Amino acid sequence: MANNTNLGAAKAAKNDEFYTQYADIQKEINAYLEYNPDTFRDKVILLPCDDPEWSNFTRFFAQNFERLGLRRLISTSYAVESKKYKNYQPTLFETESPWFDIDKTRIKGKIFELTRDTNGNGRIDIDDLEWHYLEGDGDFRSKEVCQLRDEADIIVTNPPFSLFREFLNWIFEAKKQFLIIGNMNAITNKEVFPLIRDNKLWYGPSITSGDREFMIPDDYPIEAAGWRIDEKGNKYIRVKGVRWFTNFDHGRRHEPMRLMTMKDNLRFSKHKDFIEKGYPNYDNYEAIEVPYSDVIPGDYDGAMGVPISFLDKYCPDQFEILGLTQISCHDGLPDIKKYNDYKEIERETDRPTGASGGKTNENAVLKGKGNKKTYYLGPNGEKVYSEYKRILIRRR
Description:
Elements: H1 5-13, E1 19-20, H2 22-35, E2 44-47, H3 56-63, H4 65-68, E3 72-77, H5 92-95, H6 104-107, E4 110-114, E5 130-133, H7 143-151, E6 154-157, H8 164-174, E7 177-183, H9 193-197, E8 202-203, E9 211-216, E10 227-229, E11 235-240, E12 242-246, H10 262-268, H11 272-277, E13 287-289, E14 303-306, E15 319-324, E16 343-346, E17 351-356, E18 365-367, E19 374-377, E20 383-386, E21 391-395
Parallel strand pairs: 2-3, 2-6, 6-7, 13-14
Antiparallel strand pairs: 1-9, 3-4, 4-5, 7-12, 8-12, 9-11, 10-11, 14-21, 15-21, 16-17, 16-19, 18-20, 19-20
């Protein structure tokens, strides 16, 4: 399977041409319609950073324009020369249009709009899309695309992986509703996590685990194990850790987790390592370690550290988020200890690495040597080790 390094490589090389599958879009949108059938009614939707001729976002919203009750659909694309991969062949849709200009098409972005029945067949759908060239290259930060953003009610897209944080800030700057795709690790960023904590941003309902398949350009390098080519010659890769990010409410968000008591978790949990260790207290936080979301105790009122995958099940009516370790973003639960006078030790040899214990400050720290490559030795012989990133929560 492909792993998160695919997205990391995309970020490093600005290889951002990942096309979302139609079925993934449809499943997510339908979840909001089940919660509120009028979610998109009379709304202007902007699909920036799109490739309308290839995009399933444009296809989905255009085909469902009347069913959703949209007022206007806008889709913009980057110019060919602004992309990493420039092996571009214009489509018949483009070349048969009176707007087509072979020179402009390489340096200018495009805008596609859908508002009316242009062919007189009595319905508004994808065949009624109208387009022309933008003044610039279609960058979402340009003045003309910012103006389109300000005119829209809702932003929906798969933004460039290399610009996810900047794109999210661009949306919040305009105070818009949105639905975008990104990697779940984005929540551990200092700019993004406070939005999660303050209930201004959360995961969408349709993707909670596993990986997702994206179509890629023909000349995109395939380095992942999980890839295929379909009967039409289209290339696809699979990427783990993908999530929808949104500020649209949905029913699943308010479904509380079903929890057992501490005692029952310690008796019946499927995780043998958890049964052996139980719920140890952190050395530097007044909280307990909960290594798996399915062993969160339903009868504990204190603070807990849980994996970031907890957000797939997070119900804001059930839990309060206090902070996140490793990024100094836990004012709701301050750390009570620093490790600057500790030494980092290689666990297998028990030899110092030369680094100080300050490396583990802000982490979730437990007593003992743990099973990672290193642990930390205090001036009086104390041994501690750091856990992975933990979200700090408390039951409401």
